[in-house]
Design goal:
Blueprint: E1 2-5, H1 11-28, E2 37-44, E3 47-55, E4 59-64
Length: 79
């Protein structure tokens, strides 16, 4: 299972995603249910950062919810 960190904007977001991926992997292990989205709130450097982890067929993908969010990815989940 690959652990993918999509936060490249700030070191704080990168650390939060790494912590959320570690917790997610501990919780679900190698095989989590596909396309399930889990949100984590991580305290890094005294700042709360919300991280969304999505289970893909061969990886876990973490994205920090800092700033504006692209809505293009939500269209594939509807329906």
């Amino acid at each position: 299972m690959r652990l993918i960190n999509r936060s490249k904007s700030s070191p704080l977001a990168r650390q939060a995603c790494d912590a959320a991926l570690a917790q997610h992997f501990e919780k679900f292990g190698e095989y989590g249910r596909q396309y399930k989205t889990t949100s984590y709130t991580v305290l890094v450097g005294g700042v709360k950062v919300t991280v969304e982890v999505v289970n893909r067929p061969a990886s876990y993908v973490a994205t920090a919810m800092i700033g504006a969010r692209r809505l293009r990815g939500l269209l594939s989940r509807v329906g």
